[in-house]
Amino acid sequence: MTRDNDPFVIKEWGGDIADQAVRGWSQRNFEGSSLGEPGIGSLKRIINQKSPIIIFTFLLLGISILVARLIWLQVWQGNYWLGVAEGNRIRTEIINPSRGIIVDSQSRLLAGNTASFRLVAVPAEMPKDEIKREEYLTEVLAGVPTELLLQDNLTKLAQKSYLPLIIASSLSHEMALKLMTLVDINKGLRVEPNAERIYTGGESFAHVIGYVGLVTAEEYKTAAGRYGFTDSKGKVGLELKYEELLRGQPGLRQVEVDASGLERKIFSARSPVAGAKLKLTINKDLQDLSYETLKRAVQSSRGRGGAVVVMNPLDGSILAITSYPSYNPNVFTAARNSAEISRLLNDSQFPLYNRAISGEYPSGSTIKPLVAAAALQEKVITVNTTFLSTGGVYAGRQFFADWRSGGHGLTNVYKAIAESVNTFFYLVGGGSNEFVGLGITRLSDYFKKFGLSKLTGIDLPGERAGFVPTALWKLAATGEHWYRGDTYNISIGQGNLLVTPIQMAVAYAALLNNGELVKPRLLDTIFLASGEQIKTSKELNGQVKLEPSVLAAVKQGMRQTVLSGSARSLGNLPIAVAGKTGTAQTGPQTATHAWFVGYAPFDNPDIVVVVIIENGGEGSQAATPVAREIFSWWSLHKP
């Protein structure tokens, strides 16, 4: 083997390695490849030359992205992340104010607060493992009575929500201390103090005062941050009507906490403002008497329910207003009882229904004084006008009867009111071929002037407006024309006419105070936390233009009702009473509604009494005895 072909001999050449003209030089011999592909060496030289540029470009792009992200976080989202960071060390606490109390006209407590504790859970902070969560709950809740647990909320603990849930309330001090040793705030449970609402007025005040309850999910959404998810608010009655006054203004604390949640420093604090104290116009003794008397009357007559309204006709202040059947409002709060609540909601007698302001009934003969007033004012009749009652009248082929077989004989307006003579009011209202009566247009107009078919504006939610029919309404509703017989029915409080007990109190008050339609009210005085007192005053909803002689005639007729008519059982009371009984038909298969509306004293009225017994029978037998008890009490105890 020659030297030139020996692979172990170091190749020697002359000149510079960079001199590509050297004979026999090939860089490929030293590149570790014997394939000898053309162009590879040239490509590698190009890559080696471009590498610094590529690396620099990628570095510049990465730095640009980091700078842009930094600017975004610090400039555009700086406030947001600052808030998050602050939230990790600053805790905001809402301080609920003390809810205002409610008292009667003699400052006796009707709704107040009692101290208690409750167990609150944040589902998302509880153990994630279902078995561990159940073991934890079982350990904590082992000694808590079942009736104090909110079962609906217990079923929501697996939803992983951050909204707090009350899972037990009305806890005693001893039980709260025991639970504090078992709960762990880092496991989603805490014990916190709470003020429970307590009602001392009992069933007689339930429809007036109402009750409070936990804020619902819908209320929480619409409250715009004014309520927390564990807050309570008024649901019905005065608790709802005057919610803003009673609730007061929540306070606020911002405190710095460490990583373990312990408070280190208070940054800011705003004290809560207690809710206002409300003093009512109602006298508790009169309210209780009215309710108990009404209850006995409904039960003894086997009626379905009933209502009582006692009002001062001069200024509209309510002295008593009650509805039966009723309920104990404490079952919805401190003494919550799910079984009792379910029973109330499903009771066929509707104990949660306030019949005094929402019950709509045919008025029966209690409408007759209003018809008489309209006829006298419109000169359809005078006090000397008489009609012969022989048992009833005809309208076409239909016979409209008096309640007394054979009729009442010759009758003027005084006798017509006192003995409730249907024939007189048929003719006064609907007329005959020989006599022009009021007619449905004027009749319905006067009913509306007396406030019927309109809300009285009493400061209780849930009031209904009743209904006054007209010829146009009948045509639109049934496609039929209005007939004289329809007017006959309306003239004695039957047909499609519907009224509420509170409306009848206002209408009769207008007969006693020169036609003024007073706005009924329950609130007498507001006592603000600042010490300021706000006294309510008389308000009017309009006025019925009635001549003094008209008012005098109608009142005299109602006085005769007591002296010689259908309410003679009231004639021997210590004060002079006037009024009107009513018996309203409700259908061929049901008992009639029993009514009484009256006032006292006759010469200087300061009280109007309305009583209705649903399906209670005759007004003189079922409703009048309730009024007698109320008038008797008033004669002895009125201010």
Q: Would you spell out the secondary-structure blueprint of this structure?
A:
Elements: H1 40-76, H2 78-87, E1 90-95, E2 102-103, E3 109-121, H3 130-141, H4 151-154, E4 165-171, H5 173-180, E5 189-199, H6 206-209, E6 211-214, H7 217-222, E7 232-236, H8 237-241, H9 243-247, E8 251-257, E9 263-270, E10 277-280, H10 284-301, E11 305-311, E12 318-324, H11 338-346, H12 355-358, H13 368-377, E13 387-389, E14 392-395, E15 398-401, E16 409-411, H14 413-419, H15 422-430, H16 439-449, H17 471-478, H18 484-491, H19 501-512, E17 516-518, E18 523-527, E19 533-535, E20 540-543, H20 548-563, E21 578-584, E22 593-600, E23 607-614, H21 619-637
Parallel strand pairs: 2-10
Antiparallel strand pairs: 1-8, 2-3, 3-4, 3-5, 6-7, 8-9, 10-18, 11-12, 11-23, 13-16, 14-15, 17-20, 18-19, 21-22, 22-23
Helix pairs in contact: 10-21, 13-20, 14-20, 15-18
